[in-house]
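User: I'm preparing a small set of examples for a lab meeting where we compare how different chains pack in three dimensions. I only have the primary sequence for this one, and I'd like the structure in token form so I can line it up with the others. Please keep the answer compact; I'll paste it straight into my notes.
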Amino acid sequence: MKGLRLNIVSPEEELFDGEVDSVTLPGEIGSFTILPRHAPIISALRAGTLSYVTKDGEEHSREINGGFIEMNGNNVSVCID
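Assistant: Understood. Below is the structure token output for the 81-residue chain.
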């Protein structure tokens, strides 16, 4: 199964750009996970933990203050505060 292309940016810099197996995000009404072939989605994010698993199995996490996410065609774009 093809992985997700994840791009995480802040107003200052690009924080990550690469292929991942999954992304978990703090949505406005609760945390949610995006896997490959997820339906398109646009959502606001609240303060919390953004985490993702890279193709080599490494888990990464980062505290965020909010932001937005767009998922379309196995591409996940996250803009965080």
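A couple of notes for your slides: The chain is about 0% helix and 70% strand. The mean pLDDT is 94.

User: Perfect, thanks.
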